[in-house]
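Folds vary. Our protein:
___
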Amino acid sequence: MFRHVVLFTWVADATEEQKATVETRLKELPGAIPEIRAYDIGGDAGVNQGNYEFAVVADFDSVADYIVYRDHPAHRAVIAEAITPIVAGRVAVQYSL
């Protein structure tokens, strides 16, 4: 199993509608990309200051399946159309389980 974790912060003027669009569009990806084995997304609970604002945790059977997801046109479209316009910061890690 191979896991991909990404965290985002949003620009100060990102609207709630834009943030909701990111979540909605990301939730569509498991239906479009069969290589996704598990997919969890969500906004920060707001318990600690200084956290990133949004997380994606995706599991795949293999590195090759992750690469399919990474480069898939549906995923790339979400990035270009919904995430890039409001992203202020991004960190990511991938690792084997």
